[in-house]
Automatic annotation (TrEMBL):
Name of this chain's protein: Heparin sulfate O-sulfotransferase-like
InterPro entries: Heparan_SO4_2-O-STrfase, P-loop_NTPase, Sulfotransferase
Lipid bilayer topology: Single-pass type II membrane protein
Any GO BP: heparan sulfate proteoglycan biosynthetic process
GO molecular function annotations of the record: heparan sulfate 2-sulfotransferase activity
Any single GO CC term annotated in Swiss-Prot or TrEMBL for this entry: Golgi membrane
Keyword Transcription regulation recorded: no
Location of the protein in the cell: Golgi apparatus membrane
Family: Belongs to the sulfotransferase 3 family.
Keywords recorded for this protein, A-Z: Disulfide bond, Glycoprotein, Golgi apparatus, Membrane, Signal-anchor, Transferase, Transmembrane, Transmembrane helix
Origin superkingdom: Eukaryota
Length: 385
C-alpha cells in the first residue's frame, strides 16, 4: 500500500515538474527584467527534482525489501512442507500391506527374525501364511480368499505377511487399493540348491531336534550328482524364476523362456525391493531407509547379530569344481543364473542411489554404508498464501 502511494506521489511530482517547466519558459519570456522571480522559479525546479529523486529511491528500496521477504516466505514454505513430510514418514499408513513371498533357503528365516523383533516397537503386525503340504501354488478359490482376506483384515493392518508362495497380482482380482508392496530375497541358484539338499538330510541350528525328510542319507551332493539322483538334478534349480513368475502353469515348467521373461517383468513392475542373500545387510539398510515406518532399527539388530544369521544348515559341504561345471552346463541353471544376475544388477542400481559408502568396515571387514538421505525438495510453490 505504501509503495502504491509513493508511486502516485512520484507521478504527481513529475506532472508538477512538467507544468513548472512550461511556466518557467513563459515567465522567462515576459519577465526578462525580473531576475529575482526567475531565480525563485529555478530554486523551485531544483527542489522538485530532489523530491522526485528521493521518492524514486525509496520506492526502489521498498520493492527490493518486498522481493526479499517473498523469497524468504517461499523458503519457509518449502521447509514446512519438507518437515511435514518427515513427520508423516514416521507414521505407518493404516492400510499398508507388505508381502514377502519368501523363496526357500535364501536367508528368509534370518530376515523374518528381525521383522518379528521390530513389529511391537514399530506398530505393525506380522503374519505367516501356511499352505497345505507347503504348496507354493494356490487353487484359484484360495487365491481369491487370500487376496480378499489380506486386504479386508483391517484390524491387522499395517501388516507384513510372509510365506513360501508364488507371486500373486492383486490387480487380477479387481483390487487396486490397498495394493501390497512385495519384497523378496534370492540367492545364487546352485548355492540355494546345495543348502536345501543338506538341510533335508542334516537339519539346521534353528530347530535341531526335528527329524528331516532325508535324515540318515549320508551321500554328499557330489555323489548325488554322479549318480544322477532326483534330489540334485537341474530341475530342482527351477524355483526362483517360478516364484516371481506367479501362479500360472507355464511358470512351473522348467526351462520355460516365457516364465523367465514374466519373472523379470513382475520384479520390475510389482516388487518394491528384491535383494540377494549375499548382500542381506545392504538389503536391510535400504528397507530401513525407504520404509522407516516398518523397518526402523533393523540395521542395528542385524549388526548386533541377535537375530541375523539365525538359521545355519549342519554339515553343508561345498560341491567340487567338476560338479559345479556339470551343473552349469544345464539350460535351467543358465536361466536361473540369468535371473539372479538381472536381480543383482537391479539391486545394485537401487543401492547406489539409496546408500553411500563410508570409510568404515564391520567385524567381517565388509564395507559399511549409510543412507544418503533426502535428495529433493519443493520450491516455486503456487498460489502464494
Amino acid at each position: 500500500m505504501i509503495s502504491l502511494i509513493l508511486q502516485y506521489v512520484t507521478i504527481w511530482c513529475r506532472y508538477i515538474l512538467k507544468k513548472a517547466n512550461i511556466i518557467i519558459g513563459k515567465c522567462a519570456t515576459h519577465l526578462k527584467h525580473s531576475s529575482s522571480l526567475a531565480i525563485s522559479f529555478i530554486i523551485f525546479f531544483i527542489l522538485l527534482l530532489v523530491v522526485i529523486n528521493y521518492y524514486e529511491t525509496r520506492i526502489a528500496s521498498m520493492t527490493k525489501e518486498r522481493n526479499n521477504q517473498q523469497m524468504l516466505n517461499n523458503l519457509n514454505q518449502v521447509n514446512e512442507v519438507n518437515e511435514n513430510n518427515d513427520d508423516r514418514m514416521q507414521l505407518l499408513p493404516d492400510d499398508l500391506i507388505v508381502i514377502y513371498n519368501r523363496v526357500p533357503k535364501t536367508g528368509s528365516t534370518s530376515f523374518m527374525g528381525i521383522a518379528y523383533e521390530l513389529c511391537s516397537h514399530n506398530g505393525f503386525n506380522v503374519m505367516h501364511l501356511n499352505t497345505s503340504k507347503n504348496s507354493h501354488v494356490m487353487s484359484l478359490s484360495d487365491q481369491v480368499r487370500f487376496v480378499w482376506n489380506v486386504t479386508r483384515w483391517t484390524k491387522r493392518q499395517p501388516s507384513l505377511i510372509h510365506g513360501h508362495i508364488a507371486f500373486l497380482n492383486f490387480e487380477k482380482y479387481g483390487l487396486f487399493n490397498p495394493k501390497p508392496l512385495y519384497i523378496n530375497l534370492i540367492r545364487k541358484p546352485l548355492d540355494r540348491l546345495v543348502s536345501y539338499y543338506y538341510f533335508l538330510r542334516n537339519g539346521d541350528n534353528f530347530r535341531p531336534n526335528i527329524v528331516r525328510k532325508k535324515q540318515g542319507d549320508r551321500r554328499t551332493f557330489d555323489q548325488c550328482v554322479d549318480l544322477n539322483e532326483r534330489d540334485c538334478r537341474a530341475e530342482n534349480l527351477w524355483l526362483q524364476i517360478p516364484f516371481f513368475c506367479g501362479q500360472d502353469s507355464e511358470c512351473w515348467k522348467p526351462g520355460n523362456k516365457w516364465a523367465l521373461d514374466q519373472a523379470k517383468r513382475n520384479l520390475l513392475n510389482h516388487y518394491f525391493l528384491v535383494g540377494v542373500t549375499e548382500y542381506m545387510h545392504e538389503f536391510i539398510q535400504i528397507l530401513e531407509a525407504s520404509l522407516p515406518q516398518m523397518f526402523s532399527g533393523a540395521n542395528q539388530l542385524y549388526e548386533k547379530g541377535t537375530k541375523a544369521h539365525l538359521r545355519k544348515t549342519f554339515n553343508k559341504l561345498r560341491p567340487s569344481a567338476r560338479t559345479i561345471a556339470k551343473i552349469q552346463q544345464s539350460r535351467i541353471w543358465q536361466m536361473e543364473n540369468e535371473f539372479y544376475q538381472f536381480t543383482l544388477d537391479n539391486f545394485n542400481f537401487i543401492k547406489d542411489r539409496v546408500l553411500i559408502k563410508t570409510n568404515q568396515a564391520d567385524t567381517s571387514n565388509n564395507i559399511v554404508y549409510k543412507d544418503r538421505g533426502q535428495q529433493f525438495f519443493f520450491e516455486k510453490i503456487r498460489p502464494k498464501n
